[in-house]
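Help wanted!
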Amino acid sequence: MAVYSDSDREAYAKLADFLIPEYNGKPAASAVNVHLEMLDEVLRIRPDLDEGFRRALDFCCGKDVSEALNALAREDDAAFTALTTVTTGGYMMTDGARAAVGYPGQEASPFDVDEIPEYITNGMLDRVIARGPIYRDTKHL
Amino acid sequence: MAKPTRKNEEVDVLIVGSGPSGAVAAKLLTESGMSVVTLEQGTWFDPGDYPGDKKEFELAGGKQWHPSPNVRDNERDYPINTSESDVEPLMQSAVGGSGTIWAGHWVPFLPSDFKVRSLDGVAVDWPFDYYEILPHLEAVEQLVSSSGTKGNTGYPQQAGYPTKQIPIGKTGMKLAQGMDKLGWHWWPGLNAMPSIPWQGQNPCARRGTCMFGCPEAAKWSPDLVLFKEAKKYGHRMIAGARVREVIYDDNLGRVTGAIYVDMNGRERRQMAKIVVLCANAIGTPRILLNSKSRRFPDGLANSSGLVGKNLMMHPFGLVMGHFDEDLESWKGPSGQLINTLQFYETDEKRGFVRGAKWGGMSAGGPLSSKGYVGSTVFKDGGKVEDTWGVNWHKMIEERFGRTALWAIVGEDLPEEANRVEIDSNLVDSDGVPAPKVIYKTSENSKLLLEFHAERAKESMEAAGAVSTSVMPQMRESGWHLLGTARLGDDREQSVLNQYGQAHDVPNLFVWDLSAFPTGAGANPTATLMAVAHRQATQLIKEARNVEAA
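Answered by r_m:
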């Protein structure tokens, strides 16, 4: 895995905040450290993204962020996809971002298997049954 | 119980491939007293390794847990040349095969699926019908610890399921309300996962990560249950064993076993009286076409020339409805919440034949939300700002957790031009020639998907969706691979007889989806396992009469 310098991370933070800025109570990407430990974590999980991500950083280096990202999206889709995947992937793994969007993660949701479903009590499933079978039978063939 | 087999000893039955059909075969044949060895190219997965209960699950699903072997590019995968295919084949290389990462959707084929020539004048009839399969279906529904609600009006009456319905959740209820409003068929989802602890499987925890492997060990997969049971009766699994070819003895006129490459790269032989291929509809023709002999210079059991031909991959589309309400639409199972067969049967007025099943599902985690907008914004003068920045947040607010989807699985009709060949250059990590898939989506499939997508949009709107998104046929959607060694009564028009026995070689069988002469418009695993159960039952009954090696 490539080593990212402080200046690389600062440059990435600007790109990341352009993609995911602070908005309506949601933190900006850099506020949840997508450019720091989350960058390392994402690339640990997905080392295959490293090459495209590095290419995106190099492409955008020293350019106006909007102009650079629009040009990157048109000229090097793989690098743009790597950049956005690293950014959204890192962002949505943080507790701060998850809390802000109301996402608890793919948690287990135990249920009462004996609870009568609403579609039974309100007659919805009975209406399906009342309409009768809809398959074509083949017993005659 | 058969005596435990030793290395290289000739066994009664050699199974190649350990997915759902191989698992049924191993269990039944071993329990009947036969000595059975299964060769599996992949290795054992531990449910604890699956990413579904970890924060990185969607990131990992983009590479190491991706369903395409070409994306994963693991040493245990074989590469597939898909440069001439509209659809990317999906599968897993593991003990349990693609059964480790399937969604658990249990959707038996319908009566009409076995008689499409008689009913609709297309493709071919199967040599047996739905009612012959039904008792085998009911048997495997017990084996997979299914959960569901009896009485689906989409099917003839049947026995029911061992465990009760898993909740359909807010998302399933929303989808059902749309169907109810339109007076269209729907039914609570039937899944191959128990709602209570059952046969060693844990109850579904509704994590919604079935297709990344089930970390709860709840969703049925072959490695969890049937192979463990078969082991008690002396079954031997050889994992990491990549079959190079099935051995055919020209003098005997029989197959005598298989040559495989083990995990250390050493070539080995496993001899057997009977060989059963269960390596999927790309892996099985690959092995047959790689197995050449004096009698079969064009591939084993290929006197019909049909080995590898008639590849079917269900046309697959997604229609999403975005709602004002919080549906908690990351919750599972995924696993189908509900499904519908409303437009399953042929209606000539639609301009195409056959139909599709829709599976109602949750929309997944937050990175799936990124996929809702896709990359089309960069066409026609779009800008990054249209999708990212504040607009990305707004998209998440409007869609994440608030999206229900219909996954449309349509019927693909067999065409000889859609096929699996051996690629002239590509090889796997052991140097075994790799397959090439040549596949074009038919006009019938395109019309079918367009019609169904429009109806699915109507149902979303009836359910109160604020907006809808349609993802027409996706390239990475080749979950269901069928038809490349079809069974039938006419040996010039099929590779196998009705019991999955090669017309050309009496002790060679194919029991995976390669054998299916048509593909239906439904997820095939239920019928795959039921047919394998029928074929294994027949082999046990007729074992003394099989002309073995």
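OP: Thanks! One thing I noticed: Residues 6-101 of chain A form one domain.
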